[in-house]
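Good morning,

Both structures are done.
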Amino acid sequence: ERVTVEPAKTVGMRGQIGTLAVGAEGDAVVLDQREGRFDLVDSHGVVRQTQMKLVPTTVIKGGRVVRTEA
């Protein structure tokens, strides 16, 4: 809810976005968990290493698939 419902409430769009329900916008992202060795760089240039990352594979906007992983 912290990354879906709460932001929708903050912008006054609760029930329209931030939920998967009849009548909602129908936006979603499908993520794949990848394992390996990855360097993550933040906006300050700080690098951290991780052994897992999430990669978007499919984007659904307005109920339609608009991007799939190539």
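Second structure follows.
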Amino acid sequence: PAAPMLSEVNLAYCMVSDAALTVLLRKTPRLVLLELAEPAANLWTTGAYTENGVSELIRSHPRVRIKFTV
């Protein structure tokens, strides 16, 4: 893992795609909190994560709580 001790990360208002989130979760086995901007509040209109992508992450990584920031 790239960051084996990372347990929380805040990516609100960062350009992050579904693929990037998938890699992040694969490389951070101790991650328990992921903070993202609400889709409507995100500054990036392209390359951003999707609702389907987040739903898949929730399904495949139930230990990770996703918190949305306005």
